[in-house]
C-alpha cells in the first residue's frame, strides 16, 4: 500500500458517522500536519459515508476552515449529511483531536459537495491551458530548497512528495525572489502512487507558500481553503502553478491550478493565508502588473 | 432605512443563537431569493453573534453551500461558534425554511471567518488594478437586458439594484455573445445606500451568469460560493468583473473581482455553478485563450 493510502486508513469511530485514525508525523510542515493531508482525510471520511448512502464518491467542491494546528496522534472525523440529491450530495465534516487535558479540540471544519466526475468532469468544453515550463528533470527538487523555507522544525512532507520547482520561480532559495507572485512546478508521490481526485486536495496545498516569491519567508497559516476538483487526473506528473495578486493587511490569496499529464485542468483552488511582513520589506517591487 | 438594510433586519429566534426574519419577494431571481441576499443575511446573523462575543465584526471569508432554493416566507438563521481567537473568529450558520408540511428544510449552510478589516484589510501592499471600461453612463442598465436572461419569472432583484453592463460584454442581449467568458459592469443600490463589507456578498453574486457571455442562457444554480472580503469599500459606484475559464461536465467556475470608487479591490469571489449546454452549442468559439 502507498504511503498516502496508508495515511488515509480510517477505522469506525465510537459513534455513527464517526471515523478515527492515528495521525503519524510523516506529513508535517514544521510542527503541524500539512493542511492538504487533513483535507484529504476529511474527504475520505465523507466518501466513506456517501459510499454507504450509495453514490457520489468524488469530491467536486470542498471548503475547509482551519481552526487550530493538528499534530500527530489520535484523530476523529465526525461527519454530518446535509443533503443527498440525485446528482450531488453535500456534507459537513469536523476533524478533532484532544488537548493535553483530554478536551476535544476542533482542527478543521469543512463543507463539501460530492458527485460523479465521470459525468461532472467531462466532456471538457473550455479550459485554461497549462503554461510551457521546464520539464521535471530541468527543475529543482523541493528537498534542495527546503532549507530556505524559514519554517522551524522538520518538513517530513517533502520526504513523501517529489516536488520539482521551475528554476525561474525559486530565486527566493538564494535570496533573490522574482517578486512576481508565482511559483510553478511538478508533483508526484515519491513511491509512485498515481493521482486520484482526493489526492488533488493535497497537491493543491503541497507547494511552498507563494509569499516566498515575494521575498516573505516563514509560516503562512491558512484561514480558509476551497478546492474545485474539475476532473479525474490521468497517471503521471501533475503540473502546478501557484499565484497571488492581492496582499493587504497581512492577508493574501493563494490560487492553485493543477493539470494532469494530458494537459487537462483537474483542480482549481484558492486559499486565504496570513502573512507577516518583515521589517524593511518593500511593496513597490512586488506591485502586481496584472489587470482583470 | 434602505431597502437592503430593511431586508437584513433580524429578530431573536426561539432558541439561543437563532435569529429569524420574514423574507419578502423583493430580492428574487425567477422563483428563488437571490443567493447573494441569503449570504448577506447569513453574515448579518453571524455578525450579531460576534458582536455579543465582543469583536470581529467584518466578514473576511465566507463559504456558502446551497442546498435548496429559498422562497419568500419565514426564515430562521441558526448560528454556531467554532472558534473565537484574538484576531479572527470562525463560525457556522444555517439558513432554514419550512416546507408545505411544516418540516424544516435547510437552504444554505455556510462557514465564515470574521475579523477587523481596519487591520486585516489595510495597508494594501499589492493589488490587481481595475480594468479601464466605459463609465456607468456609457453602460447599459441591467433592467434593459433582463428580458434576454431566459430565467422564467420576475427578476425583482433588478428593481433594487442599479447594475450597468459594459456594452462590449452584453452581445448576448441581442444573440451575439462575445464568447470571452467575461461580463463587466458597475453596481450601486438604487436607493443610494452606500456599500459596506456585508453588502459585497450581494454585489459579487448580483450580475447575470457569465455563461450568458458564452451563449448559454438560463438558470445557473450555484453549488458553492466563497468570497474573500479584502477591504472596506468607499462610497460610490463599485466596479465588477465576472470571468470564467473552465467549463466541463456541466460545471463552470465564476470568478468575481470588485473594486470600490477609489480603485481598491474590496472583494474576490469564486463560485461553482451548474450550467446546461443547449443543443447545437459549439465549444470551439468559446475556447479560453488564457494560459496561466
Provide structural commentary:
The first copy, chain A, is mainly beta and 292 residues long. Chain A is globular. In chain A, the strands form two sheets. In chain A, strands 1, 2, 5, 6, 7, 8, 10, 11, 12, 13, 14, 15, 16 and 17 form a 14-stranded antiparallel β-sheet that branches. A two-stranded antiparallel sheet of chain A has the order 3-4. Chain A contains six helices and 17 strands. Residues 288-292 of chain A have low confidence and may be disordered. Chains A and B meet through strand 5, strand 8, helix 3, strand 9 and strand 13 of A and strand 5, strand 8, helix 3, strand 9 and strand 13 of B. Strand 9 (124-126) of chain A pairs antiparallel with strand 15 (247-248) of chain B.
Distance between the termini of chain A: 45 Å
How much of the polypeptide of chain A forms β-strand, as a percent range?
Answer: 35-45%
Tell me which protein chains meet in the greatest interface and how many residues each side has.
A-B, 63 and 63 residues
Q: Could you tell me the mean pLDDT of chain A?
A: 91
Helix content of chain A: 10-25%
Pattern of helices and strands of chain A: HEEEEHEEEEHEEHHEEHEEEEE
Radius of gyration of chain A: 19 Å
The main pleated sheet of chain A reads as: 14 strands, antiparallel
Our count of helices of chain A gives 6
Stretches of chain A where pLDDT is under 50 for at least 5 consecutive residues are 288-292
Quaternary structure classification: homodimer
Shape of chain A: globular
Amino acid at each position: 500500500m502507498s504511503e498516502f493510502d496508508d495515511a488515509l486508513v480510517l477505522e469506525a469511530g465510537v459513534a455513527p458517522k464517526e471515523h478515527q485514525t492515528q495521525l503519524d508525523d510523516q506529513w508535517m510542515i514544521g510542527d503541524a500536519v500539512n493542511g492538504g493531508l487533513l483535507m484529504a482525510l476529511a474527504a475520505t471520511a465523507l466518501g466513506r459515508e456517501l459510499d454507504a448512502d450509495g453514490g457520489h464518491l468524488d469530491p467536486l467542491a470542498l471548503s475547509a476552515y482551519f481552526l487550530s494546528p493538528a499534530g500527530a496522534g489520535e484523530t476523529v472525523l465526525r461527519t454530518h449529511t446535509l443533503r443527498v440529491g440525485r446528482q450531488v450530495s453535500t456534507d459537513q465534516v469536523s476533524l478533532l483531536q484532544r488537548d493535553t487535558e483530554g478536551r476535544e479540540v476542533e482542527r478543521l471544519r469543512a463543507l463539501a459537495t460530492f458527485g460523479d466526475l465521470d459525468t461532472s468532469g467531462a466532456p471538457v468544453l473550455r479550459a485554461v491551458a497549462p503554461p510551457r515550463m521546464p520539464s521535471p528533470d530541468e527543475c529543482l527538487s523541493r528537498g534542495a530548497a527546503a532549507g530556505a523555507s524559514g519554517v522551524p522544525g522538520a518538513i517530513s512532507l517533502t520526504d513523501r512528495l517529489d516536488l520539482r520547482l521551475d528554476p525561474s520561480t525559486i530565486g527566493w532559495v538564494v535570496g533573490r525572489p522574482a517578486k512576481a507572485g508565482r511559483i510553478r512546478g511538478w508533483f508526484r508521490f515519491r513511491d509512485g502512487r498515481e493521482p486520484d481526485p482526493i489526492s488533488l486536495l493535497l497537491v493543491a496545498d503541497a507547494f511552498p507558500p507563494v509569499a516566498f516569491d515575494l521575498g516573505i519567508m516563514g509560516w503562512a497559516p491558512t484561514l480558509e481553503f476551497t478546492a474545485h476538483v474539475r476532473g479525474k487526473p490521468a497517471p503521471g506528473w501533475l503540473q502546478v502553478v501557484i499565484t497571488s495578486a492581492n496582499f493587504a493587511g497581512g492577508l493574501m490569496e493563494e490560487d492553485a491550478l493543477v493539470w494532469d499529464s494530458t494537459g487537462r485542468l483537474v483542480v482549481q483552488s484558492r486559499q486565504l493565508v496570513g502573512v507577516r511582513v518583515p521589517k524593511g520589506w518593500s511593496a513597490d517591487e512586488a506591485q502586481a502588473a496584472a489587470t482583470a
